[in-house]
């Protein structure tokens, strides 16, 4: 996004934020539910983007962390705990489990790591389904309450949408801070060249584990919001297909681009709704659209924009060089 | 002059192959030691054993008299040992400046301050200086992957110096670098050696480069030290001529 002038970028950002606050005021219940879901999935995808897009560690377990967060929140809030406390527990729990899941990444990479995380994903699903004393098994947990924030009840769809949007804003700022900090640079070093990173003093163990832990913690946050959003959870939404959906959001949006997850989540959550008029065909159309996109641009939608801007920059630079050269020649 | 690095009887075997077979030497403070020998004689393996990238099968490495065998590469780097690689090892998608900031950031503050502190870890000025020093000014904001081979080699060398190392191990810095850029590189290395009192060990096949840069040269063959001495002595050594230099 570096090709735009700064004031233009700020204006664009403010316009989008204002639209996200104002426009949904007229939405019906269902529209608000979809938009809240977008906000929640954006948070989870941002976590995966950190682990996969920035730090280059493949994970097929992000859906499991959404599940861990969702169950933590569902169990705690149905037992009378406030949601913010449940979110903190969800963060701590998924951070700790994510840290442990990072250890295999110290030994194996790429598709081997994908299989390790895939196995974990299955394991988590089995725990959600079989440990009924804790999770309610296949019957799930119902009547999950929505919180009171500063004394305001968020039972209705609009206030709860603002809870999701506010959480998304906080997470976005935190992730933005993280990726532009030296930590973010070290994450990218892991992705680009771990061997060189080590020889420059980058503690690759620490950063690999942190990339998993922080990315997973964001999955936990998303889960802790998902539970009160749907007010009922069972194991099915947190099976492997959620992990694959989240992976697709990151890849389609553009892995390693800050805005990739927002865009990817938008496409994954909203596009099926827009394509609903095609009735039985919408999944097929959606699948074809994704295939075409990835053939055209393997780096996702933001990859297209990035390429365009890089091309424009190169053209501008070579034009400048040509001018400088012709001046030199006339001077001689 | 005291020894910065003492290597004693380092051995490294891969299955039945003894890649490094009992190598001992020391590197004196402030010197530039050349390391030459035919391909496959164990030079790079020796580097990797010293730097903790490989665990030696035997022997020990001392830095300033302290045992450092078995430390991880990142730990050694924090103790002031830096390196360049035989094959290009930069961060292709990061800009030249970001590459250099990354190369220095882990030497600033601690994990917590690197999370909450300044995004450049206070290194933008130092990175810009290094960019100027290696004449990469016009490329500062370009992604490192877009640079020519020779320019990436210069960047690789520049990165090794960002943490202010005491000892730098350079693995074939001249390989694939054109003659004018090579003269530049040599000039920079000599300048850093003199001004910062940094000690170098240089693996190189370019004899002219080695002989004019180094104060001592060590020759390896088949995993062992064949000769060690001043460049002119080594050049006349019959065993060295036989094994490596040719008649």
Automatic annotation (TrEMBL), chain A:
GO molecular function, one term: branched-chain amino acid transmembrane transporter activity
Transmembrane segments: 7-27, 33-52, 83-103, 110-128, 160-179, 206-226, 246-271, 283-305
GO-annotated cellular components: plasma membrane
Highest rank taxon of the organism: Bacteria
Coiled coil: none
Subcellular location per the Swiss-Prot or TrEMBL entry: Cell membrane
Assigned keywords, A-Z: Cell membrane, Membrane, Transmembrane, Transmembrane helix
Topology of this chain in the membrane: Multi-pass membrane protein
Name of the protein this chain belongs to: Branched-chain amino acid ABC transporter permease
UniProtKB/TrEMBL annotation, chain B:
Pfam family, one: BCA_ABC_TP_C
UniProt keywords, alphabetically: ATP-binding, Nucleotide-binding, Transport
Keyword Lyase: no
SMART domains on file: AAA
InterPro entries assigned to the protein according to its UniProt record, in alphabetical order: AAA+_ATPase, ABC_AA/LPS_Transport, ABC_transporter-like_ATP-bd, BCA_ABC_TP_C, P-loop_NTPase
Every ABC transporter domain range: 5-247
GO cellular component: plasma membrane
Residue ranges that the Swiss-Prot or TrEMBL entry lists as coiled coil: none
Molecular-function GO terms, alphabetical: ATP binding; ATP hydrolysis activity
Function: Involved in beta-(1-->2)glucan export. Transmembrane domains (TMD) form a pore in the inner membrane and the ATP-binding domain (NBD) is responsible for energy generation.
PANTHER family linked to this entry: CONSERVED COMPONENT OF ABC TRANSPORTER FOR NATURAL AMINO ACIDS (PTHR45772:SF9), CONSERVED COMPONENT OF ABC TRANSPORTER FOR NATURAL AMINO ACIDS-RELATED (PTHR45772)
Protein name: ABC transporter ATP-binding protein
Organism: Bradyrhizobium forestalis
Organism phylogeny: Bacteria, Pseudomonadati, Pseudomonadota, Alphaproteobacteria, Hyphomicrobiales
């Amino acid at each position: 996004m570096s090709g735009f002038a700064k004031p233009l970028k700020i204006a664009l950002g403010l316009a989008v934020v204002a639209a996200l606050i104002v426009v949904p005021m007229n939405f019906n219940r269902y529209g608000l539910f979809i938009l809240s879901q977008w906000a929640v999935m954006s948070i989870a995808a941002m976590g995966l983007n950190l682990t996969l897009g920035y730090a280059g560690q493949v994970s097929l377990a992000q859906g499991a962390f959404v599940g861990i967060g969702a169950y933590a929140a569902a169990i705690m809030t149905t037992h009378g705990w406030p949601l913010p406390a449940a979110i903190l527990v969800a963060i701590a729990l998924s951070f700790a489990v994510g840290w442990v899941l990072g250890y295999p990444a110290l030994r194996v990479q790429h598709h081997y790591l994908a299989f390790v995380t895939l196995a974990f994903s299955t394991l988590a699903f089995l725990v959600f389904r079989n440990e009924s004393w804790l999770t309610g098994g296949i019957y799930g947990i119902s009547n999950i309450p929505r919180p009171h924030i500063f004394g305001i009840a968020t039972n209705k769809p609009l206030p709860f949408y603002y809870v999701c949007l506010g959480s998304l804003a906080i997470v976005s700022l935190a992730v933005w801070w993280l990726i532009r900090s030296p930590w973010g640079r070290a994450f990218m070093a892991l992705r680009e060249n771990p061997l060189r990173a080590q020889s420059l003093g980058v503690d690759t163990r620490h950063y690999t584990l942190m990339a998993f832990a922080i990315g997973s913690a964001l999955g936990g946050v998303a889960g802790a919001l998902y539970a009160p959003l749907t007010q009922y959870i069972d194991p099915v939404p947190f099976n492997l297909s959620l992990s694959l959906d989240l992976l697709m959001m990151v890849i389609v949006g553009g892995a390693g681009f800050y805005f990739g997850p927002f865009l990817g989540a938008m496409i994954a959550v909203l596009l099926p709704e827009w394509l609903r008029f095609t009735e039985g065909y919408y999944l097929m159309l959606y699948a074809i659209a994704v295939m075409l996109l990835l053939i055209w641009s393997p780096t996702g939608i933001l990859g297209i924009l990035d390429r365009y801007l890089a091309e424009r920059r190169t053209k501008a630079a070579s034009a400048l060089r040509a001018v400088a050269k012709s001046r030199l020649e006339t001077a001689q | 002059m005291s020894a910065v690095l003492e290597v004693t009887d380092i051995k490294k075997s891969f299955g039945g192959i003894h890649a490094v077979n009992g190598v001992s030497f020391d590197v004196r403070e402030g010197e530039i030691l050349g390391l030459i020998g035919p391909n496959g004689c164990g030079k790079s393996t020796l580097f990797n054993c010293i730097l903790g990238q490989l665990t030696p099968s035997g022997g020990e490495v001392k830095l300033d008299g302290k045992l450092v065998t078995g430390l991880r590469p990142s730990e050694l780097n924090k103790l002031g040992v830096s390196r360049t690689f035989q094959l290009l090892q930069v961060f292709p998608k990061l800009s030249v400046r970001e590459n250099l900031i990354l190369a220095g950031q882990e030497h600033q503050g601690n994990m917590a301050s690197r999370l909450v502190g300044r995004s450049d870890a206070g290194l933008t000025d130092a990175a810009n200086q290094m960019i100027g020093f290696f004449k990469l000014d016009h490329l500062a904001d370009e992604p490192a992957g877009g640079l020519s081979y020779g320019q990436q080699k210069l960047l690789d060398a520049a990165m090794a110096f960002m943490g202010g190392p005491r000892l730098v191990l350079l693995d074939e810095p001249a390989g694939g670098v054109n003659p004018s850029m090579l003269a530049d590189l040599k000039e920079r290395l000599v300048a850093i050696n003199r001004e910062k009192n940094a000690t170098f060990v240089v693996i190189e096949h370019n004899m002219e480069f080695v002989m004019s840069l180094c104060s001592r040269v060590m020759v390896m063959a088949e995993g062992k030290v064949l000769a060690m001495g001043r460049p002119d002595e080594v050049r006349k050594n019959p065993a060295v001529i036989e094994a490596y230099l040719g008649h």
